[in-house]
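pasting for the record
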Amino acid sequence: MPHIDYYFVTISPWTYLAGMRLEEIAARYSATITYKPCDFNRVFASTGGLPLAERSQARKDYRTQELKRWRKAREMDLTLEPAHFPTNPAPSAYAIIAAQAAGGGDVGKLTHSILRACWAEEKNVADTDVIKACLEDAGFDPGLADSGLLTGAMAYEANAEEAVKVGAFGAPFYLVDGTEKFWGQDRLGMLDLYLSGQLD
């Protein structure tokens, strides 16, 4: 049974544009997923990347153009400059970590709900009430937003360290069985082909 380690940040528009396709692909091949939200500013600092604010204007302009294209291609609502971006991704990441540990709900749905809250609904995903609503919508106890903060913080940091060690450098990043790396929502088709056995 294949396993996918999924590294991402909860305020990434590219992770949002992945939608639920990872979960759909995993279901086709009975693959398991471990969700590993992490601090990608730390990952960038260790792998040569730059936070958005520090990138050249040419890169920022191209990012905007690409977001427009992918928004249309994926037929997804996406606000190019949402009201609460950037915001602190840690609280929503802690909630995902706590929910995954607790079980009983749909972690994929929770993750996408948080991303959608930021990019389509213009909500602040650092806000406890927003996080609780996403938890409840995905079948989890909303109280998870208030519990396990220390454990969540430790896991959040560990996920970033692990992301660097395995070679992740951008979000979303998918690692299959500890060896095959796929970067970006636009590589999910390749991940699908790999799991199907069509790629070596």
